[in-house]
């Protein structure tokens, strides 16, 4: 995994002033353990929060900073924190870290947990103090075995140093932290499905309201934040709101920096901490180095498999939520994927929709039946056995499974790339429609889903 510096060609070194998430990283890629982390000003923000700030002041500082969730949804973190009940009689509250990073083409949280585990712990410690939560869980993707090992070691180091457990920093505040490995389900990225799984239940999303802030883990108030989100908290507390806001490029409505990356057949696939508002062209050309020799950029996704495809002419869009929305899709996780000109879009979409269909929890009909239906249609088109009207049926599914039509956001994210692929590359789909005079294909119509 590559992590380069703030400027093109590594001309600018990472620093605490410009790289709040990554300046402590080691050049050799090894984990930063407690002694080194503290030597690099680690836990200074936690000490400040415990000694000098009221709990409500921590919440207000995070709210004023403009920090938004880094898992893909982009909900304002301080607003989410503000939803936790103020009633002091509720003495059992939970803080959950969503580390179930299952979005295809996304690996940013893995890097933070493997190489900077104490940054996440410090972020959770400050957050727990602000939210008055006495217990926290890191819900970790089961395949992240190295991250699990490093996080567990870091938790033990923090306990031994009095930074976790009872009477932290002599404040009278108690906070226990546990690493919980999941069973590998994409749907656990949805916060209420994550909560169900943590409780030992089937990983289905819950009806909202009530929201987790009111009724979460075991019926108690719960706040769920993403890994990268929580890792931003120490720098905000240590260096202040104005500094944090100043990191973003002019024109960006999102504050601070973001871990962004590019995968695919680019010369330098990797991950970089960059200011919100950097253009996708800078990310693609200056950091990823453009396409490898012999390949041409056909299209790209800005933030994981659940975001729509964009064309090369969209590379001048700024990388922040509103900037990507202007060209017709979502920023998502900020980890982009380049699709080269050798890729058939029908095959690519069939592969994606198979993944999303398999990962559906099966709770609601549109998602449970609609996604397998899209796979069957795409398989027929891929094999040159599509029938007239199949493309219109696929577009109908895009509408039927869109935002507000299903129980959670799984299906809308699954069909967004499908709709954009048909929009920009319809001739490739039309090429898979068999002539009307051809013999009836193996996949007869009407389709009986699940047959």
TrEMBL record:
Q: Which EC number(s) does the record attach to this protein? A: 7.1.1.-
Domain spans labelled NADH-ubiquinone oxidoreductase 51kDa subunit iron-sulphur binding: 346-391
Highest taxon of source: Bacteria
The UniProt keyword set, sorted, is:
4Fe-4S, Flavoprotein, FMN, Iron, Iron-sulfur, Metal-binding, NAD, Quinone, Translocase
What's one GO MF term for it? 4 iron, 4 sulfur cluster binding
> How the protein assembles, per its UniProt entry?
Composed of 13 different subunits. Subunits NuoCD, E, F, and G constitute the peripheral sector of the complex.
> In UniProt terms, what function does this protein have?
NDH-1 shuttles electrons from NADH, via FMN and iron-sulfur (Fe-S) centers, to quinones in the respiratory chain.
| NCBIfam families named in the record | nuoF_fam, PRK11278.1, PRK13596.1
Name of the protein? NADH-quinone oxidoreductase subunit F
What is the protein's species of origin? Pseudomonas moorei
